[in-house]
Design goal:
104 residues; 67% strand; nine-stranded antiparallel beta sheet; mainly beta; single chain
């Protein structure tokens, strides 16, 4: 899906890692929340409260889920799941566009 209709967009940006990762929050009428963002090349670790689906729209990176020693490659058009109350590390090799969907 390349377009979301009938959503509320939070104007203020979510800014992480000195501005190298930014996103905007969108909320759907049913309360579903997603963030749309950009990640610059670099290494980052994120914590999660809710389970997430990280969809890479463009670019490429490697990720490692908490408790795993394996780094997995992913590129535009692919996604990965992150459990709630967890974390994941990413190594972004090129500017990457992403959509993060939060799962209750």
């Amino acid at each position: 899906m390349s377009e979301f209709n009938n959503v509320t967009v939070t104007r203020e940006a979510n800014v992480y890692f000195d501005g190298n990762v930014t996103s905007r929050t969108i909320t759907f009428a049913d309360g579903t929340v997603k963030t749309l963002g950009i990640m610059m090349p670099g290494d980052y670790t994120f914590g999660t409260a809710k389970a997430e689906v990280m969809e890479i729209l463009a670019g490429s990176l490697r990720y490692r889920l908490a408790g795993s020693e394996d780094w997995l490659a992913i590129k535009g058009g692919e996604s990965f799941n992150v459990p709630s109350e967890s974390s994941f590390a990413i190594q972004v090799s090129e500017l990457s566009d992403y959509c993060c969907s939060y799962i209750d």
